[in-house]
Amino acid sequence: MSTKTPPQIRIPATYMRGGTSKGVFFRLQDLPEAARVPGPARDALLMRVIGSPDPYGKHTDGMGGATSSTSKCVIIAPASVPDHDVDYLYGQVSIDSAFVDWSGNCGNLSTAVGPFAIANGFVPATRIPHDGTVAVRVWQANIGKTIVVHVPVRDGQVQETGDFELDGVTFPAAEIVLEFIDPSDDEGEGGSMFPTGNLVDDLEVPGVGTLRATMITAGIPTVFVDAAAIGYDGTELQPAINDDRAALARLEAIRVAGALRMGLIRSPEEAATRQHTPKVAFVAPAKDYVASSGKRIAAADIDLNVRAMSMGKLHHAMMGTASVAIATAAAVPGTLVNLAAGGGQREAVRFGHPSGTLRVGAAVAQVDGQWTVTKAVMSRSARVLMEGAVRVPGDAF
Length: 397
Hints:
This protein is α+β, with helices and mostly antiparallel strands. It contains six helices and 21 strands.
């Protein structure tokens, strides 16, 4: 005997790629009333949109792609902060567990926020040239930071097509420049962007040992360790890590130990509900390797190699927020990232990742003995993949 169930509801949405990620974008006003405020109803709705939790790990019954870089939702609202165009709230939806992590930003999807804001009327028409660039000022509501997204415009519309190539994305598109303004979290105990007060710490990791680590909160809280210290050379691709359960367990142990040392969690158990942050990355001096696409990366073309974990797996390219952390740490002499890149002072760095290379820059300075970062810059691209509405069962939230 079947029971009567409510019909599906229709919610206006846009499916967008931003950098090497993609996600479902909503205007706050279009969400069902119960989901317009933070809480269980919003989380349940977004999980159902993505298709989580999915014990099969496929997201067959949702919009997610069953990877950390494709299981994302974004809510855009009118700016709550003066001199900004929009508020950008990002939710990282867990694949096989029933929760949405709101603890950090997605730097890749930040790229798509600018085009979305222009296309959906959040930027006054008087600011949009017939041909040129629009600087969309975005308030990143998860972490309380400003991102300026420089969006190319042609014939009064967002220009999406172009010849800018981004490793990790198959097809070229128009270049979008991102500026992460004052991207460090300066509220840690140590002040500035190093929450322990040190550029390098001895991090005791249960079951692993004591590792040298650089822990930084620029872009996103990140724990950097030397690849060699954990048995790698920095040229690894996803299968080398993601098919090795013991390796995943060790890297998660490093993440938990780092989170505790950085003051992000109070007990190891809290890490299970804070999977998005901090990130763990391992660094190594430049070395030749073959990227996942088959492209050959020469050591002479990069400053260092970096591999980073996202939601318990090795990322297929590099998270945008982690790229900010890399740029910032590389600019500070003495960090593990800086040393892997050859040491000294540098305003920009090109690093190798599993899909290819990326160039990022950061402006840092010492103020009263503390390192600070004023801006990090990188180029990405974005594109609308589909627009219209998503549908979810009426009892999903």
